Automatic annotation (TrEMBL):
Protein name in UniProt: GIY-YIG catalytic domain-containing protein
Xref: InterPro entries: GIY-YIG_endonuc_sf (IPR035901)
Record organism: Hymenobacter psychrophilus
SUPFAM superfamilies linked: GIY-YIG endonuclease
C-alpha cells in the first residue's frame, strides 16, 4: 500500500534496506557515496519518519539509541543548502498522500501518545473537536494556586493594559477565544497555552499574544506609527469549504487571508487579518466553521507539546478575562 507513495517521494521503494536489529548502516555509505541528504525510516508498527542528515550514518545511530523498532531505511542524496526545503516538501507530500508519519513538525496530525493525553483523554479531545462543548477542568484554577512571585512578574504590564481604551474589547475577545477555542483551558493554562501582556514584540505595539507550542495563534494591538489597530488569528482551512465561501468570509470579516508556514502548524494553516477585534468576535460567535478551525489549530499545536512561552504567561490577564 505504501510502496507507490514511497516511490512518489523519490526514495525508490524497492531500494529500501532492511535494518531490523542493526545498530549501524556504515556499510551502505562507502567513501565514494554522499552521506548528506533526506532519509525515510519505517517502524515495525507501519509508521514512518522523514528527516534530514548531513551524515546519514551518524543520524541513523542516534535514532537507533532511542528506537529499537526501525525496520527499513531509505535515503536520497540532497545538497546541504537544500535540506530544509526538500525535507519540508517531502513531509507535506507524504502526509497528503496518506503516509502515517511520526514527525512532529511540518505535519498536520500527531501520531501516538502525547503529553496532552495525560490531562485530556484522546476520546475527550475528539468529542471536543467535533462539538466544542466545554471540557471539565476538574476544579483546576492556577490563579488561586500559583505562587505570588510568578503573578507579579507581569503585573505592571497588566495594569498598563487595563488603562488603555481598548482593554474592554481585549477582555471580551480573549474570553470568547479561550473558552471556545482551547480544550480544558484551565487545566492546560501555562503548560500548553500562554498569554503575553504588552509583549515587546513588534516594538511594544501589541496588547497581547496568545501562544501555543512555539508560535502565536492570536494577537491584537495598535501600530505605533499610524495608530491603526490590528488583530490576526492563525487557523486551519476549515473556516471555508469552497473558494466562494472563503471570499464571503473575507468580505465580511477580514482585510486579507494568507497561507503561513509555521513548522508546528502543519500543511493547512492560514493567517486571517481581521478588520478589527469586533469582527473576530462576531466570527467566533456566528461562524461554526470558523470556531472549528480555531479548535483544530489549538488541538494540533497542543498535541505537539507544551508552549515554550510559559515563562511569559500573564496570570493576572488570564484570570481577569476568564473571571465569571
Amino acid at each position: 500500500m505504501s510502496l507507490p507513495i514511497i516511490d512518489s517521494l523519490g526514495f525508490q521503494a524497492e531500494a529500501g534496506h532492511d535494518v531490523t536489529g542493526r545498530v549501524s548502516i556504515a556499510d551502505r555509505f562507502p567513501a565514494s557515496k554522499s552521506r548528506c541528504g533526506i532519509y525515510l525510516l519505517q517502524f515495525s508498527d507501519g509508521t514512518f519518519y522523514i528527516g534530514q542528515a548531513v551524515d546519514a550514518v551518524r543520524r541513523f545511530a542516534q535514532h537507533r539509541k532511542n528506537y529499537d523498532t526501525i525496520v527499513r531505511h531509505w535515503f536520497q542524496s540532497v545538497a546541504k543548502g537544500q535540506l530544509d526545503q526538500v525535507e519540508q516538501r517531502l513531509i507535506r507530500q507524504a502526509e497528503a498522500a496518506g503516509l502515517l508519519l511520526t514527525n512532529k513538525t511540518f505535519v498536520t496530525n500527531v501520531v501516538g501518545d502525547t503529553d496532552l493525553d495525560l490531562l485530556v483523554s484522546p476520546a475527550e479531545q475528539a468529542v471536543w473537536l467535533a462539538d466544542g462543548h466545554p471540557l471539565d477542568n476538574e476544579g483546576v484554577d492556577l490563579s488561586q494556586s500559583v505562587e505570588e512571585k510568578f503573578k507579579v512578574k507581569y503585573r505592571q504590564n497588566f495594569r498598563q493594559l487595563q488603562r488603555l481604551p481598548a482593554y474592554t474589547r481585549v477582555q471580551v475577545l480573549l474570553r470568547a477565544y479561550i473558552t471556545l477555542g482551547i480544550p480544558a483551558y484551565k487545566k492546560t493554562e501555562q503548560a500548553f497555552w500562554a498569554l503575553s501582556c504588552l509583549p515587546s514584540t513588534s516594538g511594544g505595539s501589541r496588547y497581547f499574544t496568545l501562544n501555543m507550542n512555539g508560535m502565536e495563534v492570536l494577537a491584537a494591538g495598535s501600530e505605533k506609527a499610524t495608530n491603526q489597530g490590528f488583530v490576526f488569528a492563525i487557523v486551519t482551512g476549515s473556516f471555508y469549504s469552497t473558494p466562494a465561501e472563503k471570499a464571503r468570509f473575507l468580505r465580511a470579516y477580514a482585510y486579507n487571508i494568507e497561507s503561513t508556514t509555521y513548522q508546528a502548524a502543519g500543511t493547512d494553516q492560514y493567517r486571517i487579518n481581521f478588520k478589527g477585534m469586533s469582527f473576530l468576535l462576531t466570527a467566533l460567535q456566528q461562524e461554526p466553521a470558523f470556531r472549528l478551525s480555531v479548535r483544530e489549530m489549538s488541538l494540533r499545536l497542543m498535541r505537539r507539546g507544551g508552549t515554550i512561552y510559559s515563562p511569559y504567561h500573564c496570570f493576572d490577564l488570564a484570570e481577569d478575562v476568564l473571571r465569571g
